[in-house]
Amino acid sequence: MVLDERPPTGSAAWTGGWPGTIGEFERLVDAFQDPLVRFAFRRLGNRADAEDVAQEIFVRAYADRRKRQTVANVSAYLYRMTANLCVDFLRKRERRKSFSLDEAHVLDIPSRDPDSARLAAAAEEVRRIERLLSCIPPTQAEAVRLCLFDDLTTREAAEILNCPEATVKSRVRYGLEKLRELARENKEDIR
């Protein structure tokens, strides 16, 4: 057995319909927790907020479990719920005029955690990628996020975006072309 082998997550791990028992729901959470947190993180840029969104998705999904028994594609449904909640979260964030810890340069404070530098670098990379994605049409950016960063198939992305698979493929292709063009134009901004 390979030591780095991890159990499948997301749609690779979940092949059934909507969970009917507590045990099935626990397996659903195990399968989708990490992928949905990553999905939300790429939209929100903050791990704690992403974890809150994913937790809220599971709370809502469990609370309304009887209504959702007819959901055919659990994976697409959970990703769509997450995308919608991220949009709501960003709208609320825009309305709040709060003090930003980033503005206070709190990240400049040395930490004893050996992973803090790696985590800060990863967060900066996510912000850089999101800045680039914000320069292309939103439909293309979302298709790129789903297919490349969230590692979903074009079929899965099409179900989440509620559009034909061919549309997702073209959005990804044109989005990547525009990103390459941006990278050529702004070499100094792209590492």
Provide structural commentary.
The protein is globular, with a radius of gyration of 18 Å. α6 crosses α7. It folds into 2 domains: 96 residues, Rna Polymerase Sigma Factor, Chain: A (Orthogonal Bundle), CATH 1.10.1740; 72 residues, Arc Repressor Mutant, subunit A, CATH 1.10.10.10. It is 63% helix and 0% strand. It is mostly helical.
Please bin the fraction of helical residues. 55-70%
- The CATH topology of the largest domain is Rna Polymerase Sigma Factor, Chain: A
Work out the helix count: 7
Low-pLDDT residue spans: 1-8, 97-110
Just give the CATH class of the largest domain: Mainly Alpha
Number of DSSP strand runs: 0
Largest beta-sheet characterization: none
Query: CATH H level of the largest domain: which superfamily?
Result: RNA polymerase sigma factor, region 2, helix turn helix motif
Instruction: Give the integer mean of the pLDDT values.
Output: 78
Summed up:
With about 190 residues, the chain is mainly alpha-helical. The protein contains 7 helices and no strands.
Any descriptors?
191 residues, mainly alpha, Rna Polymerase Sigma Factor, Chain: A, Arc Repressor Mutant, subunit A, 2 domains, 7 helices, globular
